[in-house]
Amino acid sequence: MKTVDVDRSLCDNHGQCAIAAPEVFRMNPDGVLEYEPTFDDSLLGEVEEAIDVCPVQAIFLKD
Amino acid sequence: MSTPTVDIPYLNISDPSFAMQSEELRNARAASWYARTNYGFAVLRYDEVSKLLKSPKLKQGSAQWPAHNGVHGGLFYDWWTKNLLVLEGEDHHRIRRLLNPAFSPRLIKDLVPRFQALANELIDAFIDKGECEFIRDFAEPYATRVLTILLGIPESEWPKIARLASTVGLALGVTFKRDLDKVEAAVAELYEYADELIKDRQANPGEDFVSRLVLASRDGDRLSDEELRNALVLLIFGGMDTTRNQLGLAMQSFIRNPEQWGLLAERPELGAKAVEEVMRTNPTVTWVTREAVEDFTYQDLFIEKGTTVHLFTQSSGTDPLAFPNPEMDLLGEHAPHYGFGGGVHHCLGHFVARADMSEALPLLASRIADPHLTGGDEWLPDSGNTGPTRLPIGFTRRS
Fold first, then answer.
1. Using N-to-C axis directions, what is the helix angle for B258-266 and B350-367, rounded to 10°?
2. What one-character-per-residue DSSP string does B257-325 give?
3. Which of B51, B100, B340 lies at the smallest CB-CB distance from A20?
4. Which UniProt keywords apply (chain A) (predicted)?
5. What sections of B313-380 are H helices per DSSP?
6. What mean pLDDT comes out for the span B359-363?
7. CB distance B343–A15 less than 8 Å?
8. What is the Cα–Cα distance from B152 to A26, expressed in whole angstroms?
9. Backbone phi, then psi, for B334, in 5-degree steps?
10. What is the mean pLDDT of chain B?
11. Which is higher by pLDDT, B146 or B62?
12. Which residues 7-46 on chain A approach chain B with CB closer than 8 angstroms?
């Protein structure tokens, strides 16, 4: 199963991932990213869109 | 109530002589993280710009721009109030989700050889003269022809696209109301253009950018013809002037830093870094506008609902608290700049802009040495989107 990992040293909390894949990524009320490293296979397409759209390219898939 | 320990600086940002890269601004930033202005507050330091840019308590601040200028209807008004730039919440997110895949960095990468060929063709045309008008001869045709490549329309049509984009751009200027008839005519012409493109790709879809937009779907949802048209006009409106101006500012930056130009010529792989450094220290978008959606207090400042907050990009990108050595340095490791804005409204086309400029700059550096101003340069004011409109330069051909 694939999991998703965010490099926090790169993440700038723009929140584009939370728009692309809201079931996996969300911004808390302070504007800080929270996410689930594991996700349902049916969400892989959305997660890949989140990876693509991240302005600082901080999101990575892991096998 | 606490008493402020420093006097809060005041900046007259609508004064045509107001300068971002000035002693006045540096002193203000040293004294306070924010300044008062004639239109709300200006945020001057990196950490505060970074946080407020992405704060859920602020929304994009330009939705009311036409109304503030006495424009309450018409083609531009309808387009503006429905475009991604000013939409908020789920209305915004839905369109953004459908547009994003076409702007994927993986797809933009395929266009790199075309960007390189275009840059070299433009340089070929002036390299033997030892001088050029950099905006007319490079920045404007490059920025516009990149758009025609992306849209899949003949590159020979670039002067028309450039003219229409510039005319619609008048809507952002202080003379908007006076220019309204011209703006409306240009929007109408762009609409015709966009409608034709959409119809063509719907009938003959391919692998190109517009086809991807036309075919984009998610959970059974698609962009309507009107939404597609709005998006294409936004792309032309947002992608042309900004890239042209930023290339002009890049040339200014490298003229001021000749050793960095030499370094880029020797190491073309620094092209991407060059774009980041130019945009950090000399961005065309001098501020990003936000508006408070509720009353809130940030640090020592109470911000009332409806207040305009300008997030200053160049000021934050050269803030000594975040950048101890703020000068442009292609080998330095620097925090990200906010020249593409940030948060949910982060520039949609930034991968395109980054890719095309990071090809153009090293090719220029590898072919022309010692670029210098020869006089007669003309500039947009520093308020809003700045840059040279005319930039005559001299150079020697690098052998």
1. 90
2. -HHHHHHHHH-GGGHHHHHHHHHHHS-SB-EEEEEESS-EEETTEEE-TT-EEEEEHHHHHT-TTT-SS
3. B100
4. 3Fe-4S, Electron transport, Iron, Iron-sulfur, Metal-binding, Transport
5. 313-317, 350-367
6. 98
7. yes
8. 36
9. -125, 150
10. 94
11. B146
12. 12-16, 19-20, 27, 29, 31
Distance from CA of B351 to the nearest CA of A (A): 8
Q: What is the pLDDT of residues B382-393, one digit of tens each?
A: 877 899 999 999
B104 interaction partners in chain A (CB closer than 8 Å)? 52-53
B110 is in which domain, residue-wise?
Answer: 63-283+345-397
CA–CA separation, B369 and B398 (whole Å): 5
For the whole model, what pTM was predicted? 0.96
Domain CATH for A42: 3.30.70.20
**What is the amino acid identity at position B298?**
Y
Contact B56 A29 (CB under 8 A): yes
Is residue A18 pLDDT above 50, yes or no?
A: yes
The minimal CB distance from B336 to the residues A12, A19, A52 is found for A12
Domain count, chain A: 1
For strand A59-62 and strand A33-35, is the pairing parallel, antiparallel, or unpaired?
A: unpaired
Mean pLDDT within B317-324: 97
Nearest CA in chain B to A57: B105
Helices (H), B100-216: 105-109, 112-126, 134, 140-151, 158-169, 180-203, 209-215
pLDDT over threshold 60, residue B1 = no
**Nearest-angstrom CA–CA distance, B278 and B313:** 12
pLDDT in tens, B254-284: 999 999 999 999 999 999 999 999 999 999 9
Residue B5 confidence class, pLDDT cut points 50, 70, 90: low
pLDDT above 90 as % of chain B? 89
pLDDT of residue B14 exceeding 50, the answer is yes
Judging by DSSP bridges, how do beta strands B34-37 and B10-11 pair with one another? parallel
Give the CATH number for residue B212. 1.10.630.10
Question: In which domain, by residue range, is A11 found?
Answer: 3-62
The tokens for A60 are 């990575």
Give the total number of structural domains in chain B.
Answer: 1
Match 């034709």 to its residue by tokens.
Answer: B196
Nearest neighbour of A14 by CB, restricted to B100, B103, B346? B346
HEC string of A19-49 equals HHCCCCEEECCCCCEEECCECCHHHHHHHHH
| Of B344, B174, B107, nearest in space to A52 by CA | B107
What pLDDT is attached to residue B6? Answer: 64
